[in-house]
Amino acid sequence: MTKQINPSVLKRFRYSTDDVIDAPFNWSQLARLFTYVKPYSRSLLPKAFIAVTITTLIRLLIPILIGVYVIDRALETKDVELLSILVGTIAVLYVVNTIANRYRIRWMNELGQNVIYDLRKHLFTHVQWLSHRFFDQRSAGSILVRIMNDINSLQELFTNGVINLLMDILLLMGVLIILFTLSPPLALAVLVILPMMFFISTTLRKNIRRSWQDVRMKQAKINSHLNESIQGMRITQSFTQENENMAFFNGINEESFESWRVATKKNSMFRPFVEMTNAIGSVVLIIYGAYLIKNGQLDLGAFVAFAFYLGMFWEPISRLGMVYNQLLMGMASSERIFEFLDEQPLVNDKKNPIKIGQLQGHVKFEDVQFGYEKDRLALKGISLEMKAGETVALVGHTGSGKTTIANLVSRFYDPTSGVVKMDGNDIRDLSLSDLREQISIVLQETFIFSGTIMDNIRFGNPHAKDEEVIEAAQAVGANRFIDRLSNGYETEVEERGNILSVGERQLLSFARALLANPRIIILDEATASIDTETELQIQQALRTLLKDRTAIMIAHRLSTIREANQIIVLENGSVLECGNHDSLMKDRGHYHQLVMSQFGDIAN
Amino acid sequence: MDVLCPSFPIGARAFFMSALMITPNLRENLDLMKISVKRGWSFISEFVIFNTMSFELGGTSLEIFKKLKDYYWPNKHLFFWSLFMLLITLLITVSYPIILQQTIDRVIKEQQYDLAWSLAGIFMALMIVKGIATYIGQYTGDMFGIRSVYELRNALYAKLQRLPFSYYDNAKTGDLMSRLTADVEGFRFFLSFGFVELFRLIFLVSVSLCVMFSYSVPLTFVSMAAMPLLIVAVFRFDKKVHPAFRDIRKSFGKLNTNVQENISGIHTVKSLSRESFQINKFNDSNGDYKDRYLFTTEIWAKYFPVMEFLGNISVVFLFGYGGYLVMNNQLSVGALVAFYSLLGYIIFPIMNLGFTVNLFSQSKASGERLLEVLEAPEPIHSKKNAVDGSGMKGHVAFENVTLQYREEDQVALKDVNLVVKAGRQIGLIGATGSGKTSLTQLLTRFYEPTEGHVKIDGIPVEDYTLSSLRSKIGFVLQESFLFSSSIKANISYGRPDASMEEIIDSAKRANAHDFIMELPDAYDTMLGERGLGLSGGQKQRIAIARALCQNPAILILDDATSAVDMKTELHIQQALEEVMKDRTTFIIAHRISSVKHADELIVFEHGKIVQRGTHEQLINQTGLYKRIYEIQYKDQLENIYA
Fold first, then answer.
1. β strands within B192-296, DSSP E
2. How close A473 comes to chain B (CA, Å)?
3. Are residues B350 and B404 in the same domain?
4. Do B636 and A559 touch (CB under 8 A)?
5. B597 and B627 belong to one structural domain
6. Predicted ipTM?
7. B578 touches chain A (CB under 8 A)
8. Which of residues 319-378 of B touch A (CB under 8 A)?
9. What is the pTM of this model?
């Protein structure tokens, strides 16, 4: 256990766990966060507050009743009637307390959950409309963490934090007032424990929380590695790296152990500290209280009440410290959340956009320039025309601008200069949703959502009936493999579930696109090689899919390119050649060269 | 003022976080409960919420703990220390109300004021001892769990390394992960907390009762009157809240999947402009999560105040009847106040009863799931006196090989005979599932044949040491899995001691060097989950480089160039040609262009070899190969020269 970890071993794999845990307090951020509470400021918030106030007052009252009245008055005077009245009163108060508590729990949680619901909804909806670039710059995991974990970490703040803050201040003030009323000198004396308590509750707790955070980070590292290690086990075994990986794992396990040890060491101090503070308070009470009683400045009831109230200090102070810590964590989370909320989509609807109805699908680029980054142009002033119903193949190397053209047609980006026209209108004047609804893109890799095959095809058009879904599947020939599955269209599939082969996934995405019934279809052809039989099916399916639509193909297969009405050869963001297969082959230009270099091997 | 301090390690929070993931407010309350003072019963009862499972303690649980003994028993000294310290703590805790009683009755009532100093002195001394004991007790208790789990984790990880491919075929990553994380954590929690908690429960309740009885028997009965009701309430609450919490967890899981899929598939969403649809879907899950949460809150709101009330009503009984006793001089005032404190010591563990009992059944379930992993069979290992294969030439023979993965599966290979001379290139072609991959995976003993033998250089593969066998066979698997590490480390994965020249050389051969050099940090670029995203073709090329770097005698390319375009494939092939010269190479592919240059082509159908020969021979035979060829080739040739 004490063996030295070789630092180089730990560099074998690297997992980032660099989340900021808390951030300095920031008023404007807090104010922004609390705009989410505002909708409830006239309903749940005051209701919860009233319930909390009632329970707090009862809690403050009971020790007085027991200490001053039961012990001092009733027991001293042996007044049975007073005793029964008091006991009855206490019982009634407890009943009221029970009812108030019930509503307190309900309303506080409703408030917290509603605020969290609203916040998460706002964030998700906002993110949903952000542009590709936003998603390309971040890993899916980091976005997920914000929508799920960062929001969750605010849950406590909104559920208990806000109201507890009010309650605790009330409770603390109440206790102080009562203590000073009962006996000012004794109150002053026992107050020595307050600063100690505040220190423990804020500083020590923060320190402890940090070490737990460290534990969590080390644990996250272990989890990341385990997950990866299980998925990559076949590779590890085939490269016989079991021992090397074990050394790495022992290393991170040791790190985790160490962080646990440190955290638990600090953590174990917490309770003794709190108890010692209480003990000091008790000692002061016993000695000074006894002295005061001796001098007749205090009576027994007040003494007992003091004993009760002394125990009441810790709870609000502890919770205030907790709220303080929650706030700091909330600052970090909300900072990350607001960072996303402040992102704006790159393209927006104009004011009063043109409602276009059904598109014809006539696309025109007029001297279009575009760059993803300022100083690097992806398109260098290109002009081209795609007639309605035409199939256009874009050909060229990676980075030649094929995908960029497709992105501009569906207006994921706006050109830096020049105009993209759709049916004669500048597409910036058109309603974005109208435009996009009528353009479908078939991506190289088909993403499968968890659900049934039926759901996955229906993704193309959520309103489609079952028959329509099946029809679309039949039209592209996907029915052949679907019928072979155990539950047919109702077979459950998953994102990573490999029930479906690459080719089958592709057919599924064709069916999706067909169901969406767009006017313009943009197809990024898959490069992956697939089963020859499936390949044949895909070629047939394509013909069905492209019929009567404007089609823009980012093409890799010779068969698709050849069948295009127009081939546009691109290089470094410029159009090199334009024409159909026969004319371009005859020209013996770039296209001819490209075909021969890529597919020539076959010919030889 | 009394110090009702149930000892909950904050570490509990980490456990609950993994178990529940969703309830930071509850988690935070644990903090409170740990140090919750006297009137904090309310918060204590919130702790009960964590009871999650049924209550029966199975008879086999002892056996499970016995089997796992190796991991925790070496640390038993920590456990005993923790128990010993707990005992001291508890004794002092119970003595506290007695001191309070003495103070009230003797110092105040009997006016022996000079006793105050000595009582305070004793009290302070006791509290200091208690503080120290609490510290050591909690620390050693926690360490007992932490240390044991450290060993357990190492053992589990080592076990994972040895489990065969067939195990991973049937295991789900998610399930394994939950065993390795949640169950390990559950086990730790039990070790750190469960034993001690049970001990505390029994001790605190019985000693408190004894003290109470010694003060006044009738008052004890009166103040305990509500306890049976409380126990009933606790268990009923527990029964209801358990499924409700499971629903929250499920709903949260669904919401999480929903968001995760949406982000991973965002390009698909945008390409079909389904944003609004996705938002509605999200709103449903988001709303469901809220509803489930509030449903649970409602159970809580219903039971928790009642449980608190039952605790409080005991206080009312206590003061009503106790006050009456005091008036009749049958009880001292101090004893009455002490009773009040002692009552707290009993009510808390009772509210917690469900949770404690539950810890046992949960840890039993966790232990069972861990043992399932630890005791899984490892059928594939090196024989005694195994041969070292580092001088392997690469002559391969399959003799009457039949392979069936599981009994319910169809036969993957049926009576296959094949001899491949060292240094030859073999192309394997056929539809998905025809047996190409299965055949090659027998070489490295990823699986073992149901019948027949596989020999390399005339020696059966099972006679080689496993590590030497596998390190001489380079595999590029279909799915090019890369690790979260630098490109450099990924290429040298099979040979961590490879020099930079060797790494670059491998990358060049795999046609990966050029694109690597264009990356911001070249060979030091980090890959993986949060690292740079590479295209499928780039990943494949790194995977090929990784196999080459190992300098194998036998190279197996399992559909290794499927994700690259034809032009890149051509480049890779040219580079590989030299690499393959003195190695036996198996190329599995769909594209004829990938295999046509091989020395011999083997065509598979339904687990059998149906055709073999060179490309030229096969295209002149009627058969499966010719048909594939015609579909792939003639069509394209016509396309060019139409």
1. none
2. 17
3. no
4. yes
5. yes
6. 0.81
7. no
8. 319-320, 323-324, 326-327, 333, 336-337
9. 0.76
